[in-house]
Specification:
By secondary structure, the chain is α/β, with parallel strands linked by helices. Strands 14-13-10-11-12-15-16 form a seven-stranded antiparallel sheet, sandwiched between helices. Strands 32-31-28-29-30-33-34 form a seven-stranded antiparallel sheet, sandwiched between helices. Helix 5 crosses helix 6. The radius of gyration is 28 Å and the shape is globular. The two termini are 42 Å apart.
């Protein structure tokens, strides 16, 4: 049937911040859906709180609201914009949950708004474990045994019916949050209690634990005429027991017979029909017992999911785009396949290659993390690779992870100590637990001649995959010489792997390949295995004889993407890459995008003129350059990933557009940069570049402690630490880093009680434009990626602001920046110190762009290819509104983690609040982060002696807002002495009930705690963990407390304003 004409305005609900379990795949899906709806002439209104997304750029929707995704704010937008329908299926679990609440509270009925893409009954049936179970039984599908309970007493009664271990799954959560396995009764009670608290509906499913069963997923799509097609089958290499988001997955499924696949396919189609998803994409998960073949259905997501993005990129079928068009009335046989432009969307995709997805973990950021994988998702990103064989695809995926792995490669422990030649045999039982690098251990086990049967018994991994890994080991052992170069390349071995196997350099192997004409060809991802000619294809490399495509014609520039998301490098850099495509298009250039992240907008099939889904390594990039022969390459938009190979590219004769590699290196090389600082007479903290232990000891004798210590060339503050004494400094060096000439340790004086500022600017080599100056709410010492910041600055003198602008201009011109530059400053006693300079895109570029309506990355790309700042007629920011960026931290996933922040970054995403005052903007940011901001109640205060003076006004403001105050003895006495009524309370270990007891008893609604000394740190950790569990607002800095209290004055205000309205002329 044709599209609906009875609806005009559609409200799209986004997914909010990037968190573990809900990543940037929903920016990809949401952007696709919005573009599809706009194509059909609908007026689109968007709500999303994540400034780092492409979908929140005002150019996409008619009205873009960066507001908290809650019923109160969505209702305010509905009241204002009067949408006819809401599309909640491209915003993950966040959007589904708020859509359900809107219906439950009668808001949809009140404003006569309908849900499209999925109806309430379908959402409820799929998300409610009990209703889903009943629905599946009615159509004859088998499930694990399972019981839904709403209390611990109900759960205890089940122990007579079930056997442990059992899996505990909360309803309506994302990424398996709150899920766990209970092996005994004590763990069972703990897990049920935790699950009940995590579930927004207060119910959990106690389910049969299918440990060791094989896990599969099918992505499918349905239209109003009941046409259903399977987009893609996906197989998890890791068996059940590991969350699918943390598992290595393969498409298509490799170990199903055709008959088994047809049974699963039919079951999935029966499922989507029974659930009642009228239109759009769904994901259905199955488990198969490898012993007897019993197949059970695990769950169904009635929306676009994480796997939908993977399936879209794996097949070329734009699931979110088609789902959006189906939601407004089209049927599959009325829509064209955009890749071929000839076949219909009703054709099921066919692929003639193998796709591997590897999860990316950052356990080293969290000291409390065990590194063991389970039913709760812990990965922060993923990489995808395509090859003609499993072995090729698998090896490419490993070198896409940005972990300095040249492929699927382990170190031989026997090579590490040739004098002793000691060798410790692998403990095969260590393979029982899933971990980030279990597959590398599997390879080591094969090298140590454990049998496939033994490894299968200990891992549950299907023998087919183990045999393929054994083949890789055999090739390394028997065919490793350069005489077998073509064979090695066909099996996915990188030049660097081959070089190491033959004691050669990477360049030597590369030259051998070129001399022997062993170069890759590029095949198409075209949805139809080459049966029809593709018009908007994307490509992958393999070592065969024939290319499926010709190089692009005309002026063209390659953009290097950011690779998999990880802490320190997230979606912000993908945003910059996408904006660079738009900029190049405006400047008259075609763009070639190279990236390996399936979650992103940059890897959408119709964004760039040509997309290569490839690892971002020197070898893989040079192969594409040799084929496409672009005019040059842009490396400043993809974060640290492209910068790591910029020197090699430059040395190979590749033209780097924008800021040169030399300038980037100059800013990163502390010794050389110090000469620039001295030349320009700019203040920096005292520092030492330690290349050996003598340098460290010598500096420690005269250092003005505290100091900030870190290895050189890091992103996200990795391994940074503030140390307060000579002894701590020496301990850090021996424990965390090694000082060498090539990789010195950087030691900077840490300026306590300073305010930090971030600046993003543009430079064309002659002029500088300040995009925005941001002031951090937290004082110096908290990583800029974890600190909340405000634009424009809220507490700065005109002279300091002018000095910051002057220094930014001087440095940008001295470094000959062509494009973007980010600087970080500390200000104390009106002195301005430069902390860091990054002549590239930064994680704050999207935030500043949204605040100012100036697409900084777009303009930077155009400047890089020759335009000047004068061409853009940019005006200095002089807005009346304020914006706050707040980091989103994953403490709910790592519940034993210390909650206080420091110089090492831990956040996974960010939210933005925008309004006419800093207080209301900060309130929106806190609400967007999921905080329950209290209007009244009891506030617990405990601050160090240095902070007590600053606490007085905070305490008075809390009393004025209606809070009762309780505090530890020292803080309480201080406040009483200053005329503030306050009751004292035990610290942890002093007596009972203590502060943790009172938090658990729901007697405390707000915590302000700035610790000092070991005991206070212990108290704060206990308080922090308990507060995270109870979702109580906990503030660990006085500036943060002042901002939070200022925001509480606006708790009764629900103001919504579209970005477009802030910039009306």
């Amino acid at each position: 049937m044709p599209k609906r004409n009875d609806i005009n305005t559609i409200l799209v609900i986004g997914a909010g911040p990037i968190v573990i379990g809900q990543g940037c795949e929903f920016d990809y899906s949401g952007t696709q859906a919005i573009k599809a709806l706009k194509e059909e002439g609908y007026r689109v209104v968007l709500i999303n709180s994540n400034p780092a997304t492409i979908m929140t750029d005002p150019q996409f929707s008619d009205k873009t609201y960066i507001e908290p995704i809650s019923t109160e704010y969505v209702e305010a937008i509905i009241k204002k914009e009067k949408p006819d329908a809401i599309l909640p299926t491209v915003g993950g679990q966040t959007a589904l949950n708020v859509a359900m609440k809107l219906d439950e509270e009668g808001i949809l009925k009140k404003y006569d708004v309908e849900l499209i893409g999925a109806n309430r009954k379908a959402i409820e049936t799929a998300e409610s474990r009990e209703m889903f179970k009943q629905a599946m039984l009615e159509i004859g599908l088998d499930l694990p045994y399972g019981y839904t309970v709403k209390s611990l007493d109900e759960a205890k009664k089940l122990l007579d019916k079930i056997s442990l271990p059992a899996i505990i799954r909360p309803s309506f959560t994302l990424g398996g949050s709150g899920g766990s396995v209970a092996y005994n009764e004590e763990e069972f009670e703990t897990s049920v209690n935790k699950g009940l608290k995590e579930s927004p509906t207060g119910q959990v499913l106690v389910e049969e634990y299918l440990n060791g069963w094989k896990e599969y997923e099918l992505e499918l799509i349905r239209d109003l005429n009941d046409n259903v097609i399977i987009i893609c089958s996906i197989e998890n290499i890791d068996p059940m027991g590991i969350h699918t988001g943390d598992s290595i997955t393969i498409a298509p499924a490799m170990t199903l017979s055709d008959k088994e696949f047809q049974v699963m396919r039919n079951a999935a189609i029966k499922c989507i029909r029974k659930i009642g998803v009228d239109t759009g994409g769904s994901n259905v998960q199955f488990a198969v017992n490898p012993v007897d073949g019993r197949m059970v259905i695990i769950e169904m997501n009635p929306r676009v999911s994480r796997s939908s993005a993977l399936a879209s990129k794996a097949t070329g079928f734009p699931i979110a785009k088609i789902a959006a068009k189906l939601a407004v009335g089209y049927s599959l046989d009325e829509l064209k396949n955009d890749i071929t432009n000839r076949t219909l969307a009703a054709f099921e995709p066919t692929i003639d290659y193998i796709v591997t997805k590897l999860p990316r973990f950052d356990f080293e950021k969290f000291s409390s993390a065990s590194g063991k994988l389970g039913v709760q998702m812990q990965s922060v990103g993923e990489a995808m690779a395509i090859g003609r064989t499993f072995r090729e695809s698998f090896q490419k995926a490993f070198r896409s992870l940005e972990l300095n792995l040249p492929g699927f490669e382990t170190k031989d422990p026997r090579d590490e100590d040739l004098d002793i030649k000691r060798f410790r045999e692998l403990d095969i039982t260590s393979l029982n637990d899933g971990s980030a690098f279990r597959m590398l251990k599997v390879k080591e086990a094969i090298k140590q001649e454990f049998s496939i049967e033994e490894i299968h018994k200990n891992t549950g991994i299907d023998p087919w995959f183990l045999t393929e890994i054994q083949e890789i080991v055999n090739i390394e052992k028997d065919y490793y010489t350069v005489d077998n170069l073509q064979f090695l390349k066909k099996n996915g071995f990188s030049d660097l792997q081959i070089a190491r196997l033959n004691n050669l350099s990477e360049n030597e192997v590369q030259q051998m390949r070129i001399d022997q004409k062993i170069t890759p060809v590029y095949k198409l991802v075209d949805t139809c295995a080459g049966e029809f000619e593709a018009e908007t294809p994307y490509s992958y490399s393999t070592y065969e004889s024939e290319n499926d495509l010709q190089p692009l014609e005309g002026k063209k520039i390659m953009i290097l993407g950011g690779g998999p998301n990880r802490i320190g490098q997230g979606i912000e850099f993908d945003y910059c890459c996408v904006q660079a495509v738009f900029g190049l298009r405006e400047a008259g250039y075609k763009s070639i995008m190279v990236n390996c992240n399936p979650e992103t907008v940059s890897t959408d099939f119709d964004l760039a003129d040509r997309l290569y889904f490839e690892p971002i390594t020197f070898e893989d990039i040079m192969n594409i350059i040799n084929f496409e022969k672009p005019d040059g390459v842009l490396v400043q938009f993809g974060g640290q990933t492209p910068l790591k190979i910029a020197n090699q590219l430059s040395e190979a004769g590749v033209k780097i557009y924008g800021t040169s590699s030399d300038s980037i290196n100059l800013a990163e090389n502390r010794e050389e940069f110090a000469k620039v600082i001295d030349k320009l007479n700019i203040l920096t903290p005292d520092y030492c570049i330690a290349k050996n232990y003598d340098d460290i000891y010598s500096y420690a004798e005269t250092a003005n402690f505290p100091v900030l210590v870190r290895p050189s060339f890091v992103l996200g503050g990795r391994a940074m630490q503030i140390v307060y004494s000579k002894e701590q400094l020496v301990d850090y060096v021996f424990r965390s880093a090694e000082a060498t000439n090539d990789h010195p340790i950087l030691i900077d004086q840490f300026i306590e009680n300073a305010f930090e500022f971030d600046v993003d600017a543009l430079c064309d080599g002659e002029e500088v434009f300040i995009g925005g100056i941001m002031q951090h709410i937290e004082e110096a010492g908290v990583h800029s990626g974890d600190s909340s910041c405000v634009i424009p600055p809220y507490e700065v003198t005109d002279s300091v602001k002018k000095e910051i602008e002057t220094i930014t201009t001087k440095l940008a011109l001295e470094l000959n920046v062509i494009g973007l530059i980010n600087l970080q400053f500390a200000v104390k006693d009106d002195k301005v110190y430069v902390l860091e300079v990054n002549p590239r895109s930064s994680r704050t570029v999207p935030f500043v762009s949204k605040y100012s309506n100036i697409p900084l990355a777009n303009i930077a790309a155009q400047i890089s290819v020759g335009k000047s700042l004068k061409d853009f007629k940019l005006k200095k920011n002089n807005f009346e509104h304020y914006a706050v960026k707040k980091a989103v931290l994953p403490f709910n996933k790592f519940k034993d983690e210390k909650v206080f922040l420091g110089p090492e970054m831990k956040s996974t995403g960010e939210v933005m609040g925008i309004d006419m005052s800093t207080g209301s903007a900060f309130l929106k940011a806190m609400k967007s982060d999921g905080y329950n901001v209290p209007k009244k109640g009891t506030a617990f205060l405990s601050v160090n002696k240095t902070d007590r003076k600053g606490l007085v006004l905070i305490a008075k403001n809390l009393v004025d807002l209606g809070f009762n105050l309780v505090a530890t003895k020292g803080t309480c006495k201080f406040l009483n002495d200053h005329g503030i009524i306050c009751d004292d309370m035990f610290k942890v270990g002093e007596g009972r009930p203590n502060v943790v007891d009172e938090i658990l008893n729901d007697n405390i609604q707000l915590v302000v705690n700035t610790p000092e000394g070991p005991q206070s740190r212990f108290d704060e950790e206990a308080i922090g963990k308990t507060s995270v569990m109870k979702n109580i607002l906990t503030i660990t800095t006085l500036p943060g407390a002042r901002a939070a209290i200022d925001s509480m004055k606006h708790l009764n205000d629900i103001n919504v304003k579209a970005l477009q309205e802030y910039f009306k002329k």
